[in-house]
Amino acid sequence: MESKWLSEAFKGAVPNDFQGKVGWQSPSNIALVKYWGKRGKQLPKNQSISFTLSECRSETFVTFEKADRFGFRFFFEGKETPAFGAKIEKFLLENQTFFPFINQLHLMVESCNTFPHSSGIASSASSMSAFVMCLLDIENQIVVKQFDFQKASYFSRLASGSAARSVYPKMALWGATPCFEGSSDEYAVPLENDIHPVFKTYRDSILIVSGETKSVSSRAGHGLMEGNPYAPARYARANENIENLLVALKSGDMDTFINITESEALQLHALMMCSNPSFILMKPNTLCIIEAVRNFRNETQIPLCFTLDAGPNVHLLYPESEAEKVENFIKSELITYCNQGRWIADHVGDGPKKL
Ligand code: PMV
User: Fold this and answer.
1) For 235-273, how does the pLDDT look when each residue is reduced to its tens digit (9 = 90+)?
2) How far apart are CA 320 and CA 326, in angstroms?
3) Please, what's the largest Cα pairwise distance for the chain?
4) How far is the CA of 34 from the centre of ligand 1 (A)?
5) Domain co-membership, 37 together with 103
6) CATH label of the domain that carries residue 209
7) Which residue segment(s) compose the domain that 297 sits in?
8) Are residues 332 and 203 in the same domain?
9) pLDDT band of 205, cuts 50, 70, 90
């Protein structure tokens, strides 16, 4: 792929009057089988599968203008914040062989998130994929061509691993597996046509246990897998979970879905607990919610389950048909475990959209 994108890079001169503004919104995603551990140039040690979210997203506009050399300014929620833009600027400079035209442009990036800054929800997947979509859009205005979502996934991955999965509607698979034709370590592929309809309208209620920033960055977390004695067993188990989850997603097998999803969340945290240095990212209220969810499921037979990201907040996953009952349960029992009673009602979404 790398050589394909390199050979189609536009190396000519940008027209003198080239200027304009593009905008994309892109969603966050929540992994069911977790990507935890990387190799080489942002390649995953194991495959991962995620739901594309809807309400948690980034909205990014890029104003571009022909210039003598590369120029870059970054505004977050209307305020110039170079520190937030540093990751995008680094990504651009590292990948200028693919996008040589940036050296003839001044870019002004304006970005905001629909979810609160202090919610503990990682924004790199949504913000990096939204920016990459804008970048490809600018390229497509120089060399007129169709929008290439696979290319968007490839470069989103280079900007931030899990961002590779944010560019498709419903669900995505990232990582090469013999169980899914066309899958790749270099970009994610859409799963929309390979899942049971029940998963296409799944809900994700995100219970905010703490809005604090994470005590371990995902970059450091991936790095800690290097010396983790359980890493080989983890990668083998992740492969097995991918294989079984793909089958369950297709058939609508809820029990397997719940089993794998919860086990993956706990494995992610177990890996952090037994790395060196070790991290405990769950809070007491995270465990209270997990216990309450499992009791609720046993008592009601409603297929509600949880997953966790690399932090204390709990994502509650359930079919749309159970929304009323689960929301009542959140409001009557779980809300006491949430920071200032905060939770976000999200659901599986339709992927990025041009603004
Ligand atoms: O994309 P990164 O480098 O922020 O890593 C994401 C890691 C997890 O969110 C914990 C799991 C995942 O697959 O999204």
Assistant:
1) 999 999 999 999 999 999 999 999 999 999 999 999 999
2) 10
3) 68
4) 7
5) yes
6) 3.30.70.890
7) 196-348
8) yes
9) very high
Atom of ligand 1 nearest to the CA of 268: 10
Q: Can you list the alpha helix ranges (DSSP code H) found in the chain?
A: 2-7, 82-94, 124-142, 149-159, 218-224, 231-251, 254-273, 284-300, 323-329
Residue of 30, 36, 121 with the most ligand 1 atoms within 8 Å of its CB, for mutation: 36
**What is the per-residue DSSP string for 111-149?**
EEESS-GGG----HHHHHHHHHHHHHHHHHHHS-----H
Report the pLDDT value the prediction gives residue 211, as an integer from 0 to 100.
Answer: 83
Total domain count for the chain? 2
Nearest CA to ligand 1 atom 6: 162
72 and 171 co-located in one domain:
yes
Q: Domain check: are 93 and 61 in the same one?
A: yes
Single pTM value for the model: 0.97
For residue 29, the ligand 1 atom closest to its alpha carbon is 14
Say yes or no to pLDDT of 119 above 90: no
User: Which residues sit with their C-beta closer than 6 Å to ligand 1?
Assistant: 31, 34-36, 48, 122, 124, 160-162, 218, 268, 309-310
**Is residue 354 assigned to a domain?**
no
